[in-house]
Specification:
Elements: E1 32-33, E2 40-41, E3 48-53, H1 54-59, H2 65-69, E4 75-77, E5 87-89, E6 101-105, E7 108-109, E8 130-137, H3 141-144, E9 151-157, E10 166-176, E11 181-194, E12 198-209, E13 213-216, E14 224-225, E15 231-242, E16 248-261, E17 279-281, E18 289-304, E19 307-325, H4 327-334, E20 347-365, E21 372-392, H5 396-404, H6 408-412, E22 421-443, E23 448-468, E24 476-498, E25 501-512, E26 515-516, H7 524-532, E27 541-542, E28 545-558, E29 563-575, E30 578-583, E31 588-593, E32 596-609, E33 614-627, E34 631-632, E35 639-641, E36 654-666, E37 669-680, H8 688-691, E38 708-719, E39 722-729, E40 761-769
Parallel strand pairs: 6-9, 13-17
Antiparallel strand pairs: 1-2, 3-8, 4-5, 6-7, 8-9, 10-11, 10-40, 11-12, 12-15, 13-14, 15-16, 16-18, 18-19, 19-20, 20-21, 21-22, 22-23, 23-24, 24-25, 25-28, 26-27, 28-29, 29-32, 30-31, 32-33, 33-36, 34-35, 36-37, 37-38, 38-39, 39-40
Amino acid sequence: MRRIVALALISPALSTPSWAADERPVQIEEIIVTAQKRAEGSSKVPISLSVYDAVTLDRIGARDFNDVVKVTPGIEFSDDRGPKKNITIRGIFSQAGSATSGIYIDDVPVQVRVGILNLVGVGTPRIFDLERVEILRGPQGTLFGASAQGGAVRFITAQPSLTEFSGYSRADVSTTEGGDLGYEAGISLGGPMVENKAGFRFSAWHRHDGGYVDHDSFLPGGAVEEDANYSDSTVVRGAMTFAPIEALRITPSMFFQKVKINDSGFFDPSGSDEHDSDFVNQNALLTPADDKFYLPSLKIEADIGPVALTALTGYVRRENDYALDYTNVVASFFGLPAARSISEVSPVPYSNHQDVYSQELRLQSSDPNAKLKWTIGGFYSYMRQQVHQEIVSAALPAMTQELWGMTVPYAWGADMVNGDRSFSATNVLRDRQMAGFAQVDYRVFDKVTLVAGARVARQRSSFTHDAAGPVNGGTTSTSGEQEETAVTPKFGINYQLNDSNLLYASAAKGNRMGGANTPLQPTPQCTEQLREIGVTSTPSSYDSDELWSYEIGSKNRLFGNRLAIEGSAFYIDWKNIQQSIYVPDCLASFVANVGRAEVKGFDLLLNARVTENLHLGLNIGYTDATVAETSGVPGTSIVYAYKGDQLDMFHSPWLFAASVEYAFNVAGHDAYVRLDDQYRPENPGPFTSLDHPGTPNYSTLYQPNPSQNMLNFRTGVAINGMEISLYVNNVLNDHPYLYDLAALGVGGSALGSTFTVRPRTVGMGFLYRW
């Protein structure tokens, strides 16, 4: 926490004002949000909320969602861990089953399940030409559905204007210590086609992030490449708005994003030199990833007197293809020696293709000053997700013959697939959901409002699973389904002392739909280990889990709106949790409802306009998510989790994020200088389920993430309307070992199992708005 006292951060619930001294108001400006699906000031919303407008996103140098998470309390995003990226809000997360956080692009849900083969992560848009990003902490199931169990993240894009032209352009070039160059360029333009009748908005952006992890294969002839973990991102969006009459708006839009990663950011600590920013991945093969999605949508808004009608149709097509390196994993599974040459490698091509159709229709009161405000609606979604995985083991037949003088079918009970595949599997998952929801806000007294709402959803999940090959023990084909009805109520009371001060309390239920398990491989060693943990066969399905969240909060504007304070405290009781049960001898896991957890914490956001030129703030977040009761296999001594254990084995419960910004004039031009600092101490545990010899996850080598301190510097000047900035990210060149599994030898290999943050990066940016 060595720089926290001296610095302060602009509150994410408030905008960064224009930095021209003669234009910037002394008071703190407020952003209009739609967190409750109606437009209102963020300080009037009785939800723990962080919101970033377009100017703030540029000022903190946000290029992807991870840049936003770093300064936001109560949320984690494992963006540095390759394709499997997961969002945690207020400690609610899972590496299996349905998503725990709702993700929306202009109200279209884009989250995915993470548990078909337990390798699929969430997709989030890169940040360009966004109007704002809203992060809602706490269950939002009433208005946003089952996946918003821990909270919701909303990316709101810039909309077409019917009255005026505007544009935005941005370019950047940077270099990373020990790494390669990075660069980006993008432009957006919008305005009326027919004034007051039709408008458009179009944007296009490309970014190249230079790599900083070298790849130097431990096998002769394997992958060798400097700065191999580079990536390229492309975003294109187009939208048009038509207003044939004043009370009707029709907005079709199309969003496309492609992210191509050349190699994972994993590295091997034993072959790296952190003091010289020299990180080396020694796996045999590159592990590239290609993730793209298309999002066409149609939004219809109509004002019908005192009622507003909104109809939203969305379709998401996501194609996520990447490769893993199972070179030593397969050898360990079959009891073979480690690979001796490049001919004995085992690449794993993996694909996740997802199609989601969603439709929402809602009616709501349109008078913001009405004593009774209400929202009622219906929602339908259909999701089809197909995952295909293969393990290429071209050397397995020769090695089997060399070591045992046997053919693969005789030795392993099944022949290779297509000659060189030891495993091939296709999983198709279908989710259907139909829901009705309503929320009522009734002002019983002049300053007191009662809130009540509920969502009732019928949810059905089904799957088919086809697999073959010696890793699978032969050819199998199975299917299953799960169906249930979920009810998620919400209650609250708000006390608006005056226009500047709000107190609130709420209780809300969160739900995450259940699903069906794909069976594990029916090999003898897999079946035997299942018996050891008290399971005779893979459970065919798992139920929904649920939680109740209780929260009190306050939003205050003081000293003539020069100081804003927003705080909340919460308690969450999470039951029947969907958890991944990893079975090493099966090389896979299944999902089961295991255990109960408690989450306690608070978040505090302070934002101060000290003078006309000086802007300070501070964000503090604390989330203590622990196991509420010891759980294990009935009738055995096997314990999976002990009471009091941290749910999150890596991230710290604490976040301190701070900055200071000072505006001044130089040679007749407006300028600014800014410092941002984010500090996370080490997770103190306890981790009894890892430390105790009686648990399946026992290890004396496990290490939580160490403390992190990320200091960023930026300064800029406006010349003829263009902002030219210089910045240094990670000024202290802090590069802690994160998610460090190398010592554990996870997956049969200790190679390439650790991550770090990007080393010190120096760059220059150009930005122009008109």
